[in-house]
Design brief:
Blueprint (H helix, E strand, L loop, with lengths): L3 E2 L2 E8 L2 E7 L5 E7 L2 E8 L4 H11 L9 E7 L4 E6 L13 E3 L7 H11 L11 H14 L1 H6 L3 E7 L2 E8 L2 H15 L7 E4 L5 H10 L3 E4 L5 H10 L2 E7 L2 E6 L15
Parallel strand pairs: 4-7, 5-8, 11-12, 12-13
Antiparallel strand pairs: 1-2, 2-3, 4-5, 6-7, 9-10, 9-11, 13-14
Helix pairs in contact: 1-5, 2-6, 5-6, 6-7
Length: 270
């Protein structure tokens, strides 16, 4: 690791005929093992920031908790890479319905595991949020401008909780699922209502991402990236507005366009 200095990793950069050696900032990858009531629950590869938010949001996404105050104690040990969680109503390993897992930073988990808990915690969203096209574009610009880690390294995803007026707070992580879990955990810790809120997101909207949004009770997700067909089908069923490819003055509205109030009436899809 002698190449990794405070100024960055010694990197050879090539652009056309020009070549130079410069220090390059690189994003940090950190394995965090969750010990739930004394039992190993999961190891998440993440960015080492807002780890309490990540832990709480992850447990809520998995259906282990619904509120932050169900946690009796939470201690994150940065030196050992363990988060120790005890609940007021302890769970046993057989209740996890899975063996301990290693969750990568990019790919999330398999559909098999998601479907085991989704029926319990995914919910239809009835948000009365209203937003304009110009506000969507402004929010995406604000998200991209706020991510200092991405500007330095290009190696993280960002997610923000927002209203139509602006971003409330932003969380970043090497894993797009982790970034959302950090937002979810912060909502639970701060007892922030999902009413008339949206999530602004830098990553692809997959079915897993869409289900997290449902569990958070959010009615609209705005992303600069693509969507998947299963995500769109789920969003349509669960009452969630999905907007993708929000870049510059462009955006694609896939579901429940009634929340975007300045669309031409002939373009409304529901």
């Amino acid at each position: 690791m002698d190449k990794l200095e405070k100024a960055g990793w010694k990197t050879i950069k090539i652009k056309g005929l020009h070549q130079e050696s410069v220090p390059e900032a690189i994003t940090t990858e950190f394995p965090l093992t969750l010990m739930l009531d004394g039992h190993e629950f999961a190891t998440i590869v993440c960015s080492p920031s807002e780890l309490e938010d990540l832990t709480i949001g992850f447990l809520a996404s998995e259906g282990i908790i619904r509120k932050a105050d169900e946690i009796k104690e939470l201690q994150v040990d940065m030196y050992t890479g363990f988060a120790h969680i005890s609940l007021h109503q302890p769970v046993q390993p057989q209740q996890f319905d899975h063996s301990s897992r290693f969750i990568g930073s990019c790919c999330g988990k398999s559909r098999q595991f998601y479907f085991k808990s989704d029926a319990r915690v995914a919910k239809t969203v009835t948000s009365k949020l209203e937003i304009k096209v110009s506000e969507c574009i402004m929010l995406m610009e604000d998200l991209l401008d706020s991510s200092l880690e991405f500007q330095k390294t290009g190696g993280v995803h960002s997610a923000a909780l927002a209203t139509s007026d602006g971003l409330l707070y932003t969380r970043s992580d090497i894993g797009r699922h982790n970034a959302l879990d950090k937002v979810f955990g912060s909502m639970l810790r701060g007892r922030i209502s999902a009413k008339e809120k949206l999530v602004v997101f830098s990553g692809r909207i997959s079915s897993e991402v869409l289900l997290k949004i449902s569990k958070m009770g959010i009615g609209l997700i705005l992303s600069k990236s693509a969507v998947t067909d299963l995500a769109v089908q789920l969003a349509n069923d669960l009452g969630i507005t999905v907007i993708g490819f929000t870049r510059g003055d462009r955006m694609n509205i896939y579901t429940h366009s009634h929340r975007v109030v300045d669309l031409h009436p002939d373009l409304q899809t529901d």
